[in-house]
Amino acid sequence: MPVTVPHFDTAFFRSALGRFATGVTVVTAETADKQPVGLTVSSFNSVSLEPPLILWSLSKSSSSLPHIQASQGYVVHVLSAAQVKLARRFAYGSQTDRFTDQPLSRTPGGLLMLADECSAWFACRHYAQHDAGDHVVLIGAVEDCARTANLPLIYHAGDFDLTPNNLPLSQA
Ligand SMILES: Cc1cc2nc3c(=O)[nH]c(=O)nc-3n(C[C@H](O)[C@H](O)[C@H](O)COP(=O)(O)O)c2cc1C
C-alpha cells in the first residue's frame, strides 16, 4: 500500500538508517545474451534456514533490475575487508568497467560468479519478488554457499569502515 508522509525528511531518514552497520556484497548475474551484470548491495540479510532463504533489495532505477529479474539466478558475494576497491567499482563504475579484467568463475550449479576470494558467497535461484516503494525485494533460495576466514567489509554512516582494526589503510 503506498504511504505518503509529506513532512517526512528523506535525508534525515537516510542518515538514521546509516546508523545501522551492514556488511557489503556484490551481486552478479548473467543477461539473456550471456553478459555479466552486477552491483554493490548492502541490503542483504538472512531470512530462513529451512528452506535456506536470503533477501536483498534492488532499486527500481538500477540498470541491473530487468537483467536480474530475467536471470536464472544470482550470486551474492559477501566482501572481505580487503575488497573495498571491488565494492567501489561495482557501485560507481560503468557495467562494462566493473567486469574489465575481472576474473570470473561458475558455481557448482553453473551460475556466474567472481573468482576473487570473498568472506562468503551464496548462489541463489529466484524464490520470490515483492514490490516495495522505490525498490524490489528479492528473496533467493540458496542452492550453494561457501565461506572463508576473511574478515568482512563493514559499511555505516554512508561510508566504508577503513579503521585499522578492520582494514589496513594501505589497502583502502
Ligand atoms: C555500500 C553500498 C551499498 C549499496 N547497496 C545497494 C542496495 O542494497 N540496493 C541497490 O539497489 N543499490 C545499492 N547500492 C547502489 C548501487 O550499487 C549503485 O547504484 C550501482 O551503480 C547500481 O548499478 P546499476 O544501475 O548498473 O544496476 C549500494 C551502493 C553502495 C556504495
Automatic annotation (TrEMBL):
It holds the Pfam family Flavin_Reduct. The keyword Metal-binding does not apply. The keyword Oxidoreductase applies. This is Flavin reductase family protein. Keywords: Oxidoreductase. Gene3D superfamilies: Electron Transport, Fmn-binding Protein, Chain A. It comes from Alcaligenes endophyticus. InterPro entries: Flavin_Rdtase-like_dom, NADH-dep_flavin_reductase, Split_barrel_FMN-bd. Belongs to the non-flavoprotein flavin reductase family. Residues 17-162 form the Flavin reductase like domain. The lineage of its organism: Bacteria, Pseudomonadati, Pseudomonadota, Betaproteobacteria, Burkholderiales. Coiled coil: none annotated.
